[in-house]
Amino acid sequence: MNRITMNDTILKTKKQEMDFLRFMAKLGYDLVDLNVVETFNWGSITLDDQKMMDKRHSWTDGGVLHALRSDWTNSIVRYRKQYELEAEKIAYAGMVYKKSGTIHQMGVETFTSDISAQQEVLSDVLAFMKEHLKKNISIAVISHNKLLKKLLTKDQMEDPMIHRLVSERNRDALSHALSKDHPVIGLMEVRPEDQLEYIAGRFPELAQEIEDLKVWEDKLRKLSIENVYIDTLVMPRQSYYRGIFIQLYQKNETEPQASGGQYTSSSKAFGMGING
Amino acid sequence: MNRITMNDTILKTKKQEMDFLRFMAKLGYDLVDLNVVETFNWGSITLDDQKMMDKRHSWTDGGVLHALRSDWTNSIVRYRKQYELEAEKIAYAGMVYKKSGTIHQMGVETFTSDISAQQEVLSDVLAFMKEHLKKNISIAVISHNKLLKKLLTKDQMEDPMIHRLVSERNRDALSHALSKDHPVIGLMEVRPEDQLEYIAGRFPELAQEIEDLKVWEDKLRKLSIENVYIDTLVMPRQSYYRGIFIQLYQKNETEPQASGGQYTSSSKAFGMGING
């Protein structure tokens, strides 16, 4: 890259960060800026923390475990717990560092179980993307973490091979790995728009989750997203999702421009992040 | 801190960073943004790198030494060498992480032995501080790394106690630690304005260094800094300085607002950093 391109890229990123934080501050969000080095007490490392640790840059110093921030939501939840923050809506912007690479994240979190408040946060992110990033989100994919969890055992959920085969929709290999009449194979055989009915028929105990999916589908349509799909076969990108999770795409793109979902902190919560 | 204060602080820092980078880009600087995680090959770690390592967050992973950026100049020099960058003037802004804490740095580097080009960089930093940070630098302290090095042995230079005593100008304790008729004690006994003459009389081989100090003193006065002092007893803040180094203060402040100096990369170089 020549000087001009490099300079423009760096200035553009900084400007986007600032625009995003200003935009959200005006809408009543609390801004946070956390140290990139996180410390952990051995006594209070959660199972979720442990599971992420081998993907993180981490080291010990003086008996204390240190790790670089690898995900904003995760860091904010931990910080919020530690300092008993009252903030209801939080916005952040900055780098995250995983062993697999360094990426730029901007996003928002809200700590409430109120679905309409959660949906307002989604709508704020879409508004920013349209106004400031000139990105037109025309595809939304919605899933619910409970559905696949019902269809697969815990071991299967955590098996990277099953993960990959489900993501690839590899019916042949999955028939082999699970069984020919496994409901996951059944799901792959019905049309996408019939998936919910298929699940409702077999697992009446998932009525609430199916209802939730429909509520969010309705909201996303009202936010003028042309193509809204419920896809029960999407594996969550983050292990902390507890409820619906959403991926937002521009036309003809395979990588989502933004993603987020419901999770549980001390209260129910919802967050959306824009991939920079 | 309440929401408004916190939000304002975060937005102000982001804006300053962007203003600084824009200001310098317009003046022809190349902007750089380096990964906060640096990796080192065991075969090519320099003595200078080693000396800084115990103050840095560092860890090994797969046999590779990793460390967090702890000083921009240091990281830029290493990066420039590795990728054979041609850039003559570089500007940066961002966090640095030491075990002792996290600070925000913005600064510039120039890779040239041309003193007037080096002084232009100093002048650019002063212009930014005045225009954008509304900081009025009224005090400049100039030193040269060769002077104390001539007066003290290598062991004494690296002795933290001697370091502290010289910084504190503790004549009694130093008389004890060195000797009553040590030239460092002699220097403390003459008036600051007579220090150079005292050194010139005893160490004629330092004529060039003394001349350099006078050239920079003259430049700083021309840049409208009211009080310019040459102080031969200042210990360099960075071990990489090879030549003059400068600290800039506002009136009645004990911590410098900016500091910098000459060092050697593949070529001679000069850098100034603003403490955020």
Structure notes:
The structure is a homodimer of 276-residue chains. With 276 residues, chain A is of the alpha+beta class. Chain A has 2 domains: 3-111, Bira Bifunctional Protein, Domain 2 (BirA Bifunctional Protein, domain 2, 2-Layer Sandwich), CATH 3.30.930; 137-265, Bira Bifunctional Protein, Domain 2 (BirA Bifunctional Protein, domain 2, 2-Layer Sandwich), CATH 3.30.930.10. Chain A has 11 helices and 11 strands. Chain A has an 8-stranded mixed beta sheet with strand order 1-5-6-11-10-9-7-8. In chain A, strands 2-4-3 form a 3-stranded antiparallel beta sheet, with no helix packed on it. Chain A is globular, with a radius of gyration of 20 Å. The first copy, chain A, starts with a helix and ends with a strand. The relative contact order of chain A is 0.15. The mean pLDDT of chain A is 91. The interface between A and B is medium-sized, with 32 and 32 residues. Chains A, B: Pfam families: tRNA-synt_His. Chains A, B: Residues 16-272 form the Class II Histidinyl-tRNA synthetase (HisRS)-like catalytic core domain. Chains A, B: It comes from Youngiibacter fragilis 232.1. Chains A, B: One of its GO terms (molecular function) is catalytic activity, acting on a protein. Chains A, B: InterPro entries: aa-tRNA-synth_II/BPL/LPL, HisRS-like_core.
